[in-house]
Amino acid sequence: MIALTPTPTLSTARLTLRAPKASDWPHWRDFAASDRARFVGGPIDEAKAWRAFGHVIGMWVLRGYGTFVFEETGTTTPLGMCGPWRPADWPEAEIGWTVWSADAEGQGYAFEAATAARAFAFTTLGWETAVSYIDPDNTRSIALALRLGAIMDPTAPPPPFDTPVEVYRHLPPVVLP
């Protein structure tokens, strides 16, 4: 199996965050075709899901970072995706997340993964800020952004797509002397 290299692997108390791999495809495809994907442009057909998954992998190659797939440590079943994201035409870098499995909802996995991915963006990548673009009807993602300490930023420029979004700003951690 071909793997993206070199890509970091992050660990939390319960999760491993790693680069996407070919065996993630069926899990992503099923998520993307479901109503669970409604806040990220779905549901979409297999052809569009394939291109979207290629975009996820390509971000690592083109930018040197991208979204991590997260799974419970010691397992091989992906639960979702989370991490730094910035397509070429987006005004700002984003910390994004999706939870692919309904069974993984409400378990704190997205919070745990987003906390680790955001720390990676601020410390390893040197980001000074990031945003999360969230559909105003996506109450679970809004709650997660707020739990992460992000604040709504109505002055932030939106990404170039037609769906309305609210922008939640992540600030780097304060480092005391």
Walk me through this protein's architecture:
This protein has 177 residues and is of the alpha+beta class. The protein has a single domain, classed as Gcn5-related N-acetyltransferase (GNAT) (Aminopeptidase). Helix content is 28%, strand content 21%. The strands form two sheets. It has a five-stranded antiparallel sheet, covered by helices on one side. A hairpin with a 5-residue loop joins strand 3 and strand 4. The longest helix is centred in the N-terminal third of the chain and has 18 residues. The chain starts with 9 loop residues before the first strand and ends in a 7-residue tail after the last strand.
Chart the SSEs and their pairings.
Blueprint: E1 10-11, E2 15-18, H1 25-32, H2 46-63, E3 68-72, E4 78-85, E5 94-99, H3 109-123, E6 130-134, H4 139-147, E7 151-152, E8 166-170
Antiparallel strand pairs: 1-2, 2-3, 3-4, 4-5, 6-8, 7-8
Task: Explain briefly what this protein structure is.
By secondary structure, the protein is an alpha+beta fold. It has helices at residues 25-32, 46-63, 109-123, 139-147; strands spanning 10-11, 15-18, 68-72, 78-85, 94-99, 130-134, 151-152, 166-170. The protein has one domain: Aminopeptidase (3-Layer(aba) Sandwich).
Fill in the CATH topology: Aminopeptidase
Overall mean pLDDT stands at: 94
Q: Largest sheet, order of strands side by side? A: 1-2-3-4-5
Element-level helix/strand string: EEHHEEEHEHEE
Q: CA-to-CA gap between the ends?
A: 46 Å
Give the tags.
single chain; 177 residues; alpha+beta; Aminopeptidase; 5-stranded antiparallel sheet; 28% helix; globular
